[in-house]
Automatic annotation (TrEMBL):
InterPro entries: ComF/GntX_DNA_util-trans (IPR051910), PRTase-like (IPR029057), PRTase_dom (IPR000836). The keyword Acetylation does not apply. GO terms for molecular function: orotate phosphoribosyltransferase activity. Signal peptide: none annotated. Its EC number is 2.4.2.10. It is an enzyme of class 2 (transferase). Residues 19-75 form the Phosphoribosyltransferase domain. SUPFAM superfamilies: PRTase-like (SSF53271). This is Orotate phosphoribosyltransferase. Belongs to the ComF/GntX family. The gene is pyrE_1. It comes from Pandoraea aquatica. Keywords: Glycosyltransferase, Transferase.
Length: 82
């Protein structure tokens, strides 16, 4: 239901802003999402850029509500990548 349109740089060493730019408009969602409540599952969240980009695509496709469930969350101090 969610598709990555293009290959992107690895997020690992990118700053928060660079992560958001890297994922801008990278995901598209099936129109079958329209009117549904969606649970988005991610393994690790650092800045939230991937979840944000995926959720935005799902909402554009008509999802009523998107809930992100994350297995691991990195500590905020790890977010300030130079």
């Amino acid at each position: 239901m969610l598709h990555r349109e293009r290959t992107t740089l690895a997020q690992r060493r990118l700053s928060r802003d660079a992560r958001q730019r890297n994922l801008r408009d990278v995901f598209t969602a099936s129109e079958r999402i329209e009117g549904r409540h969606v649970v988005l599952i991610d393994d690790v969240m650092t800045t939230g850029a991937t979840c944000d980009a995926a959720a935005a695509a799902l909402k554009r496709a008509g999802a009523v509500h998107v809930l992100a469930a994350v297995v691991l969350r990195t500590p905020p101090s790890a977010h300030s990548i130079n």
